[in-house]
Task: inverse folding
């Protein structure tokens, strides 16, 4: 659906916002563009939506070049820019109809579609209200409804949940998730749980480059060391050390004194294996009391911090 | 074409749904009313043979309307959309740049002509209370409105350009006011410079808005003036279009 190859965008004044990035997005995917502010997410989206040309490189949407076949691609894209700009003096229904007509829908078709997207986005009750007087959550939904109104193949949402309260964020997320399959969705965000919840794939951007691109699960697996097992066992220190040393599945271990006669063992498994059944059996065979057995997983946040940290420190 | 009408409808509705729109109409009405007072005072004191429409151009208020109202009408067109970000949502729909410029300019000129309507009322009052047939006829009135329309096109297209190159409404209004005053000063210079064999004075003569307006007010449509106004309008609109397109090659 999207093919970006060697895209570079330099602004007048010489600042390079996007530096030679390439990625593809398949039809029906929900992909998250993740990165701190100023990473080049919005710029990438602006080029994709056809608002700005690339300095070099090509961007194709549904097989059409966004610069040379701009009209064709714009017809296929529903784009909601950052901060979701709307006309505050218009009424919700009127605005959506205006947008539908601009996107080339006929009189009857635009009426039908506006009614449909208003139901889909929960706007039916506020159709007659003036946009400027709506709450932020409703405004955001108006922006989403606008992006959806012409049934685009590709939906590009730039920070769709920014500035919303938790309840509103949940409803917007649910709405975006419901688009999977029918539409291809590209979302940018700097909120990590959001990506884990909604997206099938993550592109981590920093300083205008794509640093990683994979499913959230694969990214977690790829993390150096993978997961860690924490076990609290009541056993003699020496015995514990001997056991972990002799276990081929344990790559690294660290034992610290816990409460009472318990010792807290942090074990790093080789090849990301799950050691928990093994530890349970060990404790049972030796008659040791086992108080805690958990596997700490690297969250996307750790991955994100690890991927983005060295460079940000170098900058500082 | 359908997209043009959709855009035009929105632009017009935003003129008539905003307070600014009515403030402009009120201000123009006030200035027209003031020039009407001047006219009445003039007619009352001296015997007066020329058509009354000529008197309107003779007053300072007419030019005040052009200089003050047109920047306020046009400042919003592009600058507000750029400032609020709606320019991005607008230009990422399959609309052509030319459609956008044409719709915005057309909306501005329609609104401008609506703002001039109170003048008709003044003229009818004059016609009602004078028994002279020559004071007001269809020709002079048509000529006068044509003149208002054409000179308005020039000023509004300058305003469009100013709005397209700026990111805030204030800047847009100031730039178009400066452009307007420059044109006005040029016209003043043209009026006070006698035309002679030098080509400079002959070129300058085209900028003599005062005499041209005077002709229109008498009901005389000078083709040279019409062509000058129309081509100036197209020039400014073409520049506006280039500015709007510039984001593609900047």
Result:
């Amino acid at each position: 659906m999207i093919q970006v190859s060697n895209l570079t965008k330099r602004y007048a004044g010489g600042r390079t916002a996007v530096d030679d990035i390439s990625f593809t997005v398949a039809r029906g995917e929900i992909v998250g563009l993740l990165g701190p502010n100023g990473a080049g997410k919005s710029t990438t989206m602006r080029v994709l939506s056809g608002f700005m040309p690339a300095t070099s490189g090509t961007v194709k949407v549904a097989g059409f070049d966004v610069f040379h076949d701009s009209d064709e691609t714009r017809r296929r894209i529903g784009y909601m820019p950052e901060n979701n700009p709307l006309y505050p003096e218009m009424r919700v229904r009127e605005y959506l109809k205006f947008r539908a007509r601009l996107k080339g829908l006929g009189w009857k078709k635009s009426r039908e579609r506006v009614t449909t997207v208003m139901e889909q986005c929960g706007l039916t009750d506020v159709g007659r209200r003036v946009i400027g007087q709506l709450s932020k959550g409703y405004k955001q939904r108006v922006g989403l409804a606008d992006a959806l109104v012409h049934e685009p193949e590709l939906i590009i949402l730039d920070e769709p949940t920014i500035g919303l309260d938790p309840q509103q964020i949940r409803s917007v997320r649910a709405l975006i998730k419901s688009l999977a399959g029918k539409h291809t969705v590209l979302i940018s965000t700097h909120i990590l749980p959001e990506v884990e919840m909604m997206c099938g794939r993550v592109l981590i951007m920093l300083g205008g480059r794509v640093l990683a691109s994979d499913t959230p699960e694969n990214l977690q697996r790829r993390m150096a060391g993978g997961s860690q097992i924490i076990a609290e066992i009541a056993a003699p220190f020496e015995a514990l050390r001997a056991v972990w040393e002799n276990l081929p599945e344990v790559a690294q271990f660290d034992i610290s004194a816990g409460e009472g006669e318990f010792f807290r063992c942090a074990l790093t498994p080789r090849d990301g294996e799950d050691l928990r059944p093994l530890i349970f059996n060990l404790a049972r065979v030796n008659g040791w009391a086992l108080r805690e057995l958990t596997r700490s997983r690297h969250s996307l946040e750790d991955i994100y911090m690890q991927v983005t940290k060295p460079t940000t420190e170098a900058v500082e | 074409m359908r997209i043009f009408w959709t855009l035009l409808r929105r632009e017009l509705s935003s003129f008539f749904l905003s307070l600014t729109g009515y403030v402009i109409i009120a201000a123009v009405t006030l200035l027209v009313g003031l020039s009407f007072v001047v006219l009445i005072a003039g007619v009352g004191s001296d015997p007066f043979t020329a058509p009354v429409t000529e008197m309107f151009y003779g007053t300072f208020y007419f030019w005040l309307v052009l200089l003050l109202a047109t920047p306020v009408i046009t400042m919003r067109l592009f600058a507000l959309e750029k400032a609020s970000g709606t320019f991005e949502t607008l230009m990422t729909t399959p609309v052509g740049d030319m459609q956008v410029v044409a719709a915005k300019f057309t909306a501005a000129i329609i609104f401008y002509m609506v703002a001039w309507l109170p003048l008709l009322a003044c003229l009818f009052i004059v016609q009602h209370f004078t028994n002279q047939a020559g004071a007001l006829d269809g020709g002079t009135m048509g000529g006068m409105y044509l003149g208002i329309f054409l000179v308005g096109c020039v000023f509004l297209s300058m305003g469009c350009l100013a709005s397209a190159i700026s990111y805030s409404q204030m800047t847009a209004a100031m730039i178009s006011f400066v452009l307007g005053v420059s044109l006005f000063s040029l016209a003043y210079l043209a009026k006070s410079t006698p035309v002679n064999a030098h080509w400079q004075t002959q070129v300058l003569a085209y900028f003599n808005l005062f005499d041209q307006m005077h002709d229109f007010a008498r009901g005389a449509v000078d083709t040279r003036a019409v062509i000058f106004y129309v081509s100036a309008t197209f020039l400014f609109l073409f520049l506006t279009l280039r500015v709007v397109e510039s984001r593609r090659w900047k």
Notes: The first helix of chain B runs from residue 2 to 17. Chain B has a mean pLDDT of 86.
